[in-house]
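Allow me, if you will, to draw on your knowledge of protein folds for a short while. The matter concerns a single protein, recorded as an amino acid sequence and a row of backbone structure tokens. Kindly check, if you would, that the fold set down in the tokens agrees with what the sequence suggests. You will find the record immediately after this paragraph.
***
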Amino acid sequence: MKTKPKKSEAKAASIYAIVGSDESTIKSAAQELAAQLAPADAGDFGVEIIDGCADNAEQAASRIRSTIEALQTLPFFGGKLVWLKNANFLGDNVVSRATSVQTALEELASALQSGFGSEEVKFLLSAPEVDKRRTFYKALSRQAELQVFDKLDASRSGWEEEAADLVQSLGKKRRLQFEPDALDLFVLLTGGDNRVIAGELEKIDLYLGAGSRQITLEEVRLLVPLSRSGVIFELGNALAARDLERALTLVRRLLDQGESAIGILLVAIIPTVRNLLLAKDLMQRHKLSRPSAPFSFISTLNRLPNDATAHLPRKKDGTINGYALGLAAMQAQHFEIDRLVRGLEACLVANLQIVSSQLDHELILNQVVVKLLAA
């Protein structure tokens, strides 16, 4: 979530905008702000809402001009709030690109610039999609008290750190504090979604009550639903922590959920062993200390010369998957390099057995886990 402060002292008192890609957060934030801005003594005449959800360009242009007309109409009693609500013609789509819509938006920008004819009139715009390259958005950002709520992009490198910051920020408002392992799991289970994070924090808050405000790993496991990706993450954690019993239990759970053995091997087991081996090798070769958190290891990797990290796996955007390596580096002390090499060799054998033999798939996976983790 990113929030921009007010841009202009002269305009901030009368023009407000809440935009971004996080639709649920925008709706709730706009509803809350509208309640604050609505004149207390004007009743039903104090708030004029224009539905910004348009089906086509003609309808969008009409809604924009209705907004301008409402802004230029003086209030009957006291003040007035004009709310252009859930506008869907500010993004990059066919409707928003229409000449008639762009012309109407230019007229609205001009009206905002010139004022409303009364200091008692306030304007609120809420929009779930905006094209920040457009002239209207740039004009709005200069004139309005602007709040931007964007969803985190989980496909982008570094999203986990942003999500962790968001979780901790929202948790502080409830006086909640996460243990490091609990925070890592909570971030992966909630995926950076504001609505999901808020809901799960509320659940944990109610569960803890007036007692301890420290959130443990076990409490996250107990209270936050374990999605497919969450089980995979937990299996990786169990392998890295050399928790044999839990790792075998999670393999069984994934199979019961309908996951294929080859999928579990390729998505959960091999990446974990590979990251442990890479992290262990980096730490020994470059004399790196064990990180206290995954994000600090990312900074350490960024300080290494390019040839020291050229072999590391990359994400879709070409950046190093530093978070996964950071998690591995925190647990690498549980393993020797020889054991990890043998673990990768066992994964290769298991891969061949799954696709070419009649052996029980759970047995094959369990053999890999035992070879990797058993003393």
Q: What stands out?
A: The radius of gyration is 27 Å. The first helix runs from residue 9 to 12. Confidence is low (pLDDT under 50) at residues 1-12. The chain has three domains: 9-148, 159-223, 228-373.
